[in-house]
Amino acid sequence: MKFVHIDAHTHAQFPAYDADRSEVIKRAQEAGIAIVNVGADLESSKDAVRVAHEFPEGVFAIIGLHPTETEAGGEFDYEVYKSLAEESKVVAIGECGLDYFHIEGNLGDAKIQQKKIFLRHIELAKEAGKPLMIHCRNAMGDLIEFLQDNKAKLNAIPGIMHFFTGTAEEAEALVALGFYFTFGGVITFSNDYNAAIGRIPLDRILSETDAPYVTPAPYRGKRNEPLYVLEVERRLAELREVSTEAMAAQIMQNAKRVFGPIFE
Ligand SMILES: [Zn+2]
């Protein structure tokens, strides 16, 4: 495959790109970037799979139910998601996890519901033999404890922590469980994550945009898109004091290890 960079967590299937989706994806592909579109509910998961099939190569999908969708009564129909998980272009299960930032109703009930649905994703990842793509906000302590409690249900390569915002110590606990980490645009304009980035082994780091959100410098204020993952990669290389080329090569190797031979 001619792809030498990866946007490992993006949402090019979202309505933000309805007017120019193929141009956005082609711009990334011409720069050698493979992209992984992540679902947040059943509809956007199906859309991610559909968009992946529209391109002969370099576009992949992840399917799941975002934790903030569980409170609004979002259902996780295991069999429906399982049939999506079996699609050839689906490389992981998610985005799933815990998010205590957005809870509007009863906190205790929401936490129980989120953990219940997160566990179903863990079980699906195991059954499908694919890694998890985990979202976590204001819940890192609970998340790590939950993963440690359910360690026996995790795959040998359990998955990726998306947009990791935890401390260096929390990163270490997740490294010990076998997790990988994606970093996005925020690292180009904030130094808050430098300590964690410095502590995670180079062979566990991937790049992402989370587009259309969190646009990296120098494009802040514009709509984000997968092409801008190059800015994230550049910043990761700077922080780890390696060349941009070496960082890109390392990230692609990591992507192949975590997502499997589909990136060969
Ligand atoms: Zn996302």
Write the layout of secondary structure elements.
Elements: E1 5-10, H1 21-30, E2 33-38, H2 42-54, E3 59-63, H3 68-71, H4 78-85, E4 90-99, H5 107-128, E5 132-137, H6 140-149, E6 159-161, H7 168-176, E7 180-183, H8 194-199, E8 205-207, H9 229-240, H10 244-259
Helix pairs in contact: 4-5, 9-10
The chain binds zinc ion (ZN).
Report the sheet-strand fraction.
15-25%
Derived structural class: alpha/beta
**Average pLDDT across residues?**
95
Low-pLDDT segments, ≥5 res: none
Computed CA radius of gyration, to the nearest angstrom: 17 Å
Q: What is the class in the CATH system?
A: Alpha Beta
| Distance between the amino and carboxyl termini | 6 Å
Compressed to H and E, one letter per element, the order equals EHEHEHHEHEHEHEHEHH
Classify the helix fraction into a percent range. Answer: 40-55%
- What is the general shape? globular
Strand order of the largest sheet: 1-2-3-4-5-6-7-8
Integer tally of domains: 1
Q: Number of DSSP helices?
A: 10
Most strands sheet: 8 strands, parallel
CATH superfamily: Metal-dependent hydrolases
